[in-house]
Amino acid sequence: MTFSEVPLMNDYVLLLTGIACAGFGGELFVRGTVGIASVLRIAPSVIAVTIAAFATSSPELSVAINSGLAGKSQLSLGDALGSNIVNISLVLGFTLLISGIPVSKEVLKRDAPVAILVPLLIAIFLIDNIIDRLEGLFMLVFFGAWMATTLKQALKERAPAGGRVRTVDRLVPLLQGVGGLILLVVAGRLIVVSTAGIARDFAIDDFIIGATLVAFGTSVPELASTVLAKIKGHDEIGVGTVLGSNIFNSLFYCSHCGYHQTD
């Protein structure tokens, strides 16, 4: 092995480490999400579509901010849009191979239409080859309205209190959830760095890197948590995480892209 091959080998080690973190983190995350939802007396799907979706999509946010500061908006836009495709095709598709996924009426009415509408909105904004600040602001307002509606419905539908919950019972799922999310975020970061490094060694265009390898890397947390949720019988967590992640990617993260194609 020559000295020039060492960085590439390091990228592969980072990739394998990230995948291991995603698997273990997904296991802790599912346990913590179910426990937190029980303590707060709200549906697990609400936790999944908000807090969990934001946490598992944090690698996309990191890519959006860092690539924007570096003047590489093509990378961040490719990642956000590519991650949506990966979530729907690979993550849901792989999960459905295990068995069908029942979806609640609340998710169909509240989250699914938004997850379908926002990619069309971005396509309209990109007709003139630019996402400007005004369009980004509109996307953030849209995102805020969806989030407010979700939280309002969650508070309205809280289950009645069933007695006092011991402090230790509250602490365990919180630690599991936080620990799992940290591992998922670390996994996403490791996989993003490693896949981007591998791709650049082969001189691949920034947008292609973002839409393929980086998008796959940032979607590993969703894949791990969704598959494990399915295996454990918590379908609402998996579906909520995927839909919520797509909404975060399309509205919250794309609004930070500031994409401008001059070619």
TrEMBL record:
Domain Sodium/calcium exchanger membrane region as annotated: residue spans: 13-150, 178-255
UniProt KW keywords: Membrane, Transmembrane, Transmembrane helix
Primary residence: membrane
Membrane topology according to the record: Multi-pass membrane protein
MF terms in GO: calcium channel activity; calcium, potassium:sodium antiporter activity
Annotated Gene Ontology cellular component terms: plasma membrane
Source species, domain of life: Bacteria
Cell location: Membrane
Record flagged with keyword 4Fe-4S: no
Transmembrane segments: 12-30, 42-65, 85-102, 114-131, 137-155, 171-192
A GO biological process held by the record: intracellular calcium ion homeostasis
Classification via Pfam families: Na_Ca_ex
UniProt protein name: Sodium/calcium exchanger membrane region
Protein species of origin: Chlorobaculum parvum (strain DSM 263 / NCIMB 8327)
Lineage: Bacteria, Pseudomonadati, Chlorobiota, Chlorobiia, Chlorobiales
